Every structure is written in C-alpha cells, then in structure tokens.
Amino acid sequence: MADFEPGPFKADLERRTAGAIEALKHDLGSLRTGRANTSLLDTVQVEVYGSMMPLNQVANVTVPEPRMLAVQVWDRSNVTPVEKAIRSAGLGLNPITDGQTLRLPIPDMTEERRKEMVKLAGSYAEKAKIAARNVRRDGMEALKAAEKKGKISQDEQKRLETEVQKITDKAMVDIDAATAAKEKEILGK
Predict the structure, then answer these.
(1) Signal sequence span per UniProt (predicted)?
(2) First to last CA, the chain
(3) Are 46 and 52 contacting, i.e. CB atoms less than 8 angstroms apart?
C-alpha cells in the first residue's frame, strides 16, 4: 500500500486553496474604496508598441497623497495611450496630465457605486469559493482512486477525506473574512 503519499497530497491541496485565496485578495485589492492604492491600476492594460501591456510595465505608480495616485510614464510617447487606458478602464478616474506624469485624484464614491463594488467583491468571493470546492473535488476523487487501486485503506481514505474537508472549510472562512474586510472598507464603516 505504498505509492500514495498523504503528506505531499495534503500539501498540494493546501497550496492550491491558498492560490485561490491569493487570487481573491489580488482581485479585491483592485476594487476602489475611496482611498488611493496602487493596486487600483493593476488591471489596466495599455496599448503600446503594437501590443497590450500591463500599466506597471510602462509606468511607475505611486501614492503621493491619501486621495491621489501619480503615474510616472517612462516613455514620453506612451503618455497619451496610458491616459486613454486609465480613462477607459471603468475605474471612474480622470487623469490630469503634467508632462510625463499623470495625476489621478480619487473622487468620493457615491452610495450606488459603493453597492456596485460590494456586489463585485461578492462575485470575486464566489469565484474563489468555486475554485476551493474544485480543489476539494479533485482531492476526493484522487482519494477514491487511490483506495480503489489499493494504494490506501478505506480507513485512511476516510481520514484523509476529513483532512480535505478541513482544508476546504478553512479556505471558506478565509475567503469570507477577506471579503467582509473589503466590504467594510468599501462601505467606509
């Protein structure tokens, strides 16, 4: 009954669920909350040199003031495409051009916009929960297959299924906590 290693199996499931949580945190970081944060612009793609590139590959983003972002474009010829990309990103930001620097004042969020952001945070959380449940399903299927092939006993299968469920439950708690914190931040509570 060798061949099947519970340690690496469990570590792989933990790594994959942690990846789903990290992806959620990255997505939540891109949501605007009324305060300046460089991650607001992480999703912005700029059309330069004949292809689409992430903003952080053509400019440096800083937070000079609590309600202001500054985008220092490295190549003067890219200032207009960067400005256009920020305006069309749907973030509600209007760049003010000052040479090779774009200043982005962060406007106050309306109640309606806050509710939209909370909904979006919820959809990001649901995506992460689906990813965590998919990891659980893969783990359970691997355990059933290992038991069927005689690599692990039925008792070991049941014990490991409990471990897989614990990993999934912890991931769900972490996802809910990250989402609740972001919703609180968005609603300004």
Answers:
(1) none
(2) 55
(3) yes
- Contacts of residue 33, defined as CB under 8 A and 6 or more positions apart, other chains included, come to 109, 117, 182, 185, 186, 188
Amino acid letter, 90: G
Pick the CATH number of 6-29+110-187 from 3.30.300.30, 1.10.132.20, 3.30.460.10, 3.40.50.620: 1.10.132.20
Measure the CA–CA gap between 189 and 187, rounded to whole angstroms: 6
The answer to whether the pTM exceeds 0.70 is: no
Residue 14's nearest CA partner among 100, 115, 117, 139 is 139
Going by C-alpha positions, the residue among 38, 31, 47 that lies closest to residue 83 is 47
Predicted pLDDT of residue 189: 63
Q: How far apart are the C-alpha atoms of 103 and 117, rounded to whole Å?
A: 23
pLDDT tens figures, 30-51: 776 667 778 788 888 999 988 9
- Return the residue matching tokens 């305060």: 35
Strand partners, 70: 62, 103
- How far apart CA 27 and CA 115 sit, in angstroms, is 17
